[in-house]
């Protein structure tokens, strides 16, 4: 996890300085005076040798010091932490919706293969993967906020504000998890230990849900953790559609306003959270599978 974050920090450092050219020129504009450009370089620290810039950047990343925003002047980490709870809540609710939909449907599809439940689950997964999340969000707004006025149209602050965007995010992830759950469960049901359990006279329900399901959930948890990380970093469009003041909108405004410290800090912060989630998912393996516990 540490190596991943350091590698991404290095990539961000190089990309910010190579792709747009001189960040000071990009921020100042073509009509800026040389004194203004030099002042921005001093503020960004790009006036120093590249090796000094890199070592300073890595040291600051270790301390979660991403500098100050070029627009507001506030520390970048404070701006991120101010918006992070909303995005985290949105992603958490979205992954819960995905799991509640995907795992029961996936298990039933695997247990009752080629039944109406199986076909229904596959149709749902195809539709879920085909629908763009932002388009689904707009439809949900038109239906449940404009026409029926069940949910608020814009804003944040209550759970009601998060339900529609969470559904928009969760449906696509549910489609992926459903297919994976079905495939993993079907594979477990064909293994010898399941056949042996049935031959001992165990009920079908006990075999399916106590023995097979526990092993089938391992790959589902892996992909679920990755999907949760994607939700944290990929909710930009959804937050725009629903006017949610989360990390996505913050980073998008940073790009619009050419706020390089905010962009750098945002990418590294999301990478750190993503890596931390994957680390926690690995720790969950020991709970579900005692054979891989570290003693």
List the helices and strands and how they pair.
Elements: H1 2-18, H2 23-28, H3 34-44, H4 50-62, H5 76-111, H6 116-130, H7 133-147, H8 159-189, H9 192-199, H10 204-233, H11 236-241, H12 247-256, H13 260-288
* CATH-assigned homologous superfamily of the largest domain: MetI-like
Mean pLDDT: 84
Write the CATH fold name of the largest domain. MetI-like fold
Q: Briefly, what CATH class of the largest domain?
A: Mainly Alpha
The coarse overall form would be elongated
Give helix and strand order, one letter per element, not per position.
Answer: HHHHHHHHHHHHH
Count of separate DSSP helical elements: 13
Number of domains: 2
Classify the helix fraction into a percent range.
Answer: over 70%
How would you sum up this structure, described in words?
With 295 residues, the protein is an all-alpha fold. The protein folds into two domains: 2-62, no CATH class; 77-292, Orthogonal Bundle (MetI-like fold). The chain is built from 13 helices and no strands. Helix 1 (2-18) runs antiparallel to helix 13. The protein is elongated, with a radius of gyration of 24 Å. The model has no long low-confidence stretch (mean pLDDT 84).
Summarize the structure.
This protein is an all-alpha fold and 295 residues long. The chain has helices at residues 2-18, 23-28, 34-44, 50-62, 76-111, 116-130, 133-147, 159-189, 192-199, 204-233, 236-241, 247-256, 260-288. The longest helix has 36 residues, at 76-111.
